[in-house]
Structures are given as C-alpha cells and as structure tokens.
Amino acid sequence: MEFDVVDLSRLQFAMTALYHFLFVPLTLGLSVLLATMETVYVITGREVWKRMVKFWGTLFGINFVLGVATGLTMEFQFGMNWAYFSQYVGDVFGAPLAIEGLMAFFLEATFVGLFFFGWDRMSRRQHLAATWAVAIGTNLSALWILIANGWMQHPVGATFNPDTMRMEVTSFYDVLFNPVAQAKFVHTVSAGYVTATMFVLGISAWYMLRGRHLEIAKRSMAVASAFGFASALSVVVLGDESGYEANLNQKMKLAAIEAMWETEPAPASFNVVAWPDMEKRENLFAIEVPYVMGLIATRSLDTVIPGIKELVAQSKDRIHEGVIAWDALQKIRANPQGAGDDVRETFKKHSGSLGYAYLLLPFTDNPMEATPEQIDEAAWSSVPNVFPMFYSFRIMVACGFYFILATAVFFYYSSAGRLDFVREKRRWLLHVAVLSIPLPWIACEMGWIVAEYGRQPWIIESMLPTSAGVSSLSIVEILLTLTGFVVLYSTLLVIEVALMIKYIKIGPDDGDVHDQGLAAAARPVAGPAQIPAE
Fold first, then answer.
1. 3-61 pLDDT tens trace
2. Would the pTM count as exceeding 0.85?
3. Quick check: is 147 in a domain?
4. Among 51, 232, 506, 523, which one is most buried in terms of CB atoms within 10 A?
5. Closest residue by Cα to residue 393 from 401, 382, 383
6. How many CB atoms lie under 10 A from the CB of residue 417?
C-alpha cells in the first residue's frame, strides 16, 4: 500500500487521538463518580465511603496522568503536520483552546493536587469542593475541545477573508452554541460516564467473585449501576440527536453510515446489515427495516434523505460554482488593491462553494482547466469509505444498547438489596460484568471513527479538504514521528494497564479487622475466570 503525506499525516493524528481517547472517557466518568461518592461520605460521615473515594481516586490519578501525557502532544501536531489548517482556523480555534487551557485544564490540574494531598489538611466540605472542582474542570476541558471539533464538523460564526486567507470569527456566540458542538459534548461526556460505570462495575464484580472487599464492592456497584443506567440511556438519546444534526449539516456522513446509495421515498428504510461495495457503488446485499431510518434521521414521515449518488451530483454542481470562486480568489490575491468590486462581489456570491474547488487539486494543478472526468473524480472523492462507516456505527450502537441492559440488571439487584443473591446464585452475571470492561472503549473508539472518518475528505466540512491543510513535510519525517508516537504511547498504555492491575489487586482499605475477617470468611473457591490475587 502506498502512502502520501496526507495519508500519513492523517494516520499519525488518528493514532495519537485514538490513543489519547483511551484515557479521556474514564477520566470524565470517574471524576463525577468520585464526587458523588464523596458527597455521600460528607452527608453520612461513614468511613467506608471515604475509603471508596480513596481507592477509586488512586485509579483515577493513574489514568489522569496518562491522559495529560498523551493529550499535550496532540495540539503540537496542528503546527507540525497541519500548518495551513492552523493558519486557516487560528482565529476561530484560538479562543476555545486558550479557554480550555486557562480555565478548564488549570482548574482541573490544580484541584487534583488538593484531592490527593488535602485529606488531612482540609475539612470534609473543603475537600468535597475540591473533588467537585476536579469533576467540573474535567468536563469543561471536554466542552472547549468539542466546541473546536464541532466547528470543524459544522463551521458557523466565521467567514473567510480572501485577503488574509483565513477564517475570521464574526460571532463567538454562534461558535460557542453551535448545535453540533453541543450535541457532541453531551454525547461524549455521557459516553465517558458509561465507560467509568462499566469499569467500576467490572472491578467490583471481580471483587465479589473473589469474596474480597465486599462492602466497598457492593456500594460501588450500587452507585455505578444507578449512575450508569441514566448515562447509558442518555448516550442513546443524545446519539439520536447527533444523528439528527448530521442529517441537517453532514448529509454525506449520514448516507455513508447507512450505506444509502440511492435516494428513497420518505420515510427511508434502515439497513440493519449490508455489504457495501465502493467500486460497484451499491450494496451487494442488505437487510432492511422499512421507514425506520426516515423516522430516526428526520423525525418526520415526509422528509426525504438524499442518497450518496444524489449527493455526489450535488457536489458536482458545487464544484462548478467553487471554480468560479477560485478564479475570483486568484484575481484578488494577484492584485489585492486593484481587484474591482465586481470581482469581490463574484467571490462573495460563490465563496460558500470554494472548498469544493479545492477537491480538484489532487487531480489537476489548475481547477479552471479541470476536465469533466476530473470533476467526476473529485465529486466521488467527497464520499468516505462506506464499509468501515457502516459497521463502526453499528458496533457502537450495539454496545450502547448492551450498556443499558447491563446497568439496568445491576441497578435492579443493587436497589433491591440482592447483590449477595447475585454473588451466590447468579455468578455468571459477575463474570459477564468483568468481561464487559473493554466494551465502552471499543464503543468510544468506534464513535470517533464515525465522527472523524465520516467527514472525510473534509478537515473543515465543505470548506477545506484535508489534502489542502497539511504541512510541507517529507514522508520520512512523518514516518519517524509516527513511529515514535506509536512506540511512546504503546509504552504508556502498557504502564497504565500494569499500574491499574497492580492497584486493583492490592484493593481498597477494608477498615477494621472485623471487616477483613468478614471478607475472608465470605471468600469463595476461585473459579476459572477469576484473576489471581497475587
């Protein structure tokens, strides 16, 4: 397989982003769970809740450090691999990323120190305030990052200046309250809450299988299952909102997710299973459910969802219009002072399609001289690879519904006070919970593949193709940094997993001797799926 600078730059950013997001969702969810558990401790004064907070806080701290270490390098990649993109969006991205660093990250990092070292130096309420500050800072960090990312999916509140060749903010309010960004934020943090839930449920289930730390395990399971059930429901509901926004603003992404090649009469059917073929531009087979897609994506019975082929035809029209804007832009750049009002008016009229002219650059050096065949190729390049889109989305959705079922089951048993019954008579449920620990990460990564791979070939939807945003680097330079990142991040991942396993095996403080003796007496014979304690 041959790679060019664009492919390798995309691969490097994708690898570092996917590695980084192994740590982010657990940080988001555990921070809120810690604050919830400590709130119960402050209200009740029972030491068992304090021991719970300290134990889960240790795992949170390990994950937090690794998340910071993998996240810092990502922002440097904007300047390293995506120089023109950084110059193009600097006016828009500057404010959200600066606010994230100054308000969210420093708030989070400062109070993390108080959380770990302030137990004996602060009152209960003061320490609780610090813990909630960590949770709020963590979630605010996600907010500002997703505002920036949401703008890339749906650029609003900014306009392109042909004299500076930059996007310039016209309404920070529109950037801040971008509906795509807000939908992505609530969906992403809810996914983080589910990740932490399944993590706590799985580890608590392992302790119950081993008969260790039963009081802490049962309380942790009760809190996590209630929190997770609400979060899992939210993920599905908010995911539906994201799909609705995609139908409004990213129709090609939605068509690719559903492998919908042809426009169907409203309401469109939903492909449960299909085998998309990019070369033949059709599905080799598909199992459909009538009307469902139209109802989900449009929330109506009469709104038509355009298929991929119709959207490609629309892209051809946008390319022709974009070429007119391209010609006017070259005249403005060649003579900024002498370009007449008619040239600037022409550019202003067609500037909304300028990005489509950039789609021609991989096929011709001069969009003004593009042949019909090149225009056709450029139009079809606006279609992301349908097969990975189709199945990434379905893996994510299947996991989402499974999380609802799993958290509902444990919420029922914990709220009914029947967790001892589960430990004695329904042990298979505990084994399932342990085995389910990796699933939220799989779902989260699939979600990011849908979100980011699905807007290709655009780095900024309908405005700037990914191929136009890269830096002038050699393939060797990118390969070296890509290899370095993969080796470094893989090492960090191994370190985190090893530290997590170490402290999970050590377990929480059980308190007085009576509690330890009770746990030892309740310990069952080790089963085949149990992790050794030593």
1. 688 889 888 888 888 888 889 999 999 999 999 999 999 999 999 999 999 999 999 99
2. yes
3. yes
4. 232
5. 401
6. 10
